[in-house]
Design a protein that fits this description.
Alpha-Beta Plaits, 3 domains, five-stranded antiparallel sheet, five-stranded mixed sheet
Length: 432
């Protein structure tokens, strides 16, 4: 702009020195200058000032040509050139403004297009996340359903542990269950396929960081306990809550089933195995012993003069005696031994991997404990007492089948009764 201004000043000065000043006031020149000012005056930016400079430059050049031509071109030339220059610059101005408006429109369009593309991208991501969530929910639901496939409490807890460790990557997990009968709490540690009881509070005191999150276990009857998990982050809370409800129902059903199964396998009065259950254990042990060649023994015990005891003291006192004898019978047994009520006042004990001589040692200790036991009954001031007779038989020493074994033990029992009661007898004879 400085160069352009200097050029214009030089031309105007030259015209004045040549005495052409009077022509500067001619209407054409004034029209050119005024038109340029009219177009440019409202604007102050560099581009507008440059346009004004161009108009003034062209007008000045035209005037200079007129003077240098000695008036040959005449005023008609100026009359043609000046409006033409004004029209050209006005048209150029309009076109540039149109271009700028078009560019602005395109910029807005591009910005809007970018905004829409970003919205579309986010929607696609959200849809993909929803689809992935649906797939995860379907897979998790199929996994959760496996909780209801088992009617065993420990197996249900084991499956719950595998779900929590595999699907949610928990660091630790435990379940606290409320026993509906005793109202006591049972604490179970859930590893990946591993289940074991722990002390109350041991889980919460573990080190290792992370977040401890509690999930309520619910069933139709209300809350039955809680699941505690330790994890780095708590995600999928809704799924965890659903697992809590499903696990609660599965555990309630398993506990109920086990309770019914336990009642079906145990004697209601004494809590020992019933006749059917103890017989099944004897049959299983016979099959195993035949395969391994190991020995095992079977013992039968009967309360002496129990019918007369019932007649004298009543059935309530008789039940109290049965319960007391049952409790005495379980003392000193191994975890592998099985004890049950054979029927009436008779009891039976299975001793795996034990010869008849070993079973006889336990039988004698049991007989002495019953003889020494004083049974207190509220209706009588003096404690009551009873004695028992015991028969023992072993496999393969006295029998090679279940029926032979039971008969041999029963025969030994009645031998003890015939010989005066309150004693033990081993089966006689050896099966060939």
């Amino acid at each position: 702009m400085r160069i352009l201004g200097a050029a214009m000043s030089a031309i105007l000065l030259g015209l004045l020195l040549q005495g052409g000043g009077e022509y500067l006031l001619e209407g054409y020149f004034v029209m050119g200058i005024g038109g340029g000012l009219l177009i440019i005056w409202p604007f102050s930016d560099e581009e507008k000032r440059f346009d004004f400079g161009k108009i003034v430059l062209v007008v000045c050049v035209s005037v200079a040509l007129f003077f240098m031509g000695g008036g040959y071109f005449g005023k008609d030339l100026l009359a043609f050139l000046i409006p033409l220059v004004m029209i050209e610059f006005v048209t150029d101005r309009f076109l540039r403004q149109s271009d700028r408006r078009s560019e602005e429109i395109w910029r807005k369009f591009r910005r809007r297009k970018q905004v829409l593309e970003e919205q579309i991208r986010r929607e696609e991501e959200r849809i993909n996340e929803l689809m992935e969530t649906m797939r995860n929910l379907t897979r998790t639901y199929d996994t959760i359903k496996t909780l209801s496939e088992s009617l065993d409490q420990r197996e249900t807890l084991s499956r719950l542990g595998r779900i929590l460790h595999s699907e949610f990557a928990v660091l630790d997990a435990c379940v606290i269950l409320k026993n509906s009968d005793t109202r006591e709490e049972e604490v179970w540690y859930l590893g990946y396929g591993e289940v074991k009881k722990r002390r109350r509070g041991e889980f919460r005191g573990e080190k290792g960081g992370g977040i401890v999150y509690r999930i309520p276990l619910r069933s139709e009857g209300g809350r039955i306990g809680e699941i505690y998990i330790r994890t780095k982050t708590v995600e999928k809370r809704e799924i965890l809550e659903a697992i809590g409800e499903q696990a609660g129902m599965a555990l309630t059903r398993a506990v109920l089933y086990q309770k019914v199964a336990h009642e079906a396998r145990t004697d209601a009065l004494t809590g020992l195995l019933n006749h059917k259950s103890i017989l099944e254990y004897v049959e299983e042990e016979m099959t195993r012993a035949r395969a391994t060649g190991e020995e095992f023994s079977f013992m039968m015990a009967d309360i002496d003069h129990f019918k007369r005891f019932n007649d004298i003291y009543g059935h309530e006192a008789g039940d109290a005696v049965l319960i007391a004898v049952a409790r005495t019978l379980t003392h000193g047994l191994r975890a592998s031994d099985r004890v049950g009520r054979w029927g009436g006042e008779e009891f039976a004990v299975l001793f795996p991997e034990t010869p008849a001589s070993g079973a006889a040692v336990y039988a004698e200790r049991f007989r002495r404990n019953v003889e020494a036991k004083k049974i207190h009954f509220s209706q009588y001031e003096k404690p009551l007492s009873v004695t028992i007779s015991v028969g023992v038989a072993g496999y393969p020493e006295h029998a090679t089948t279940v029926e032979e074994l039971i008969n041999a033990a029963d025969a030994a029992l009645y031998t003890a009764k015939r010989k005066g009661r309150n004693q033990i007898q081993k089966a006689q004879g050896k099966k060939q």
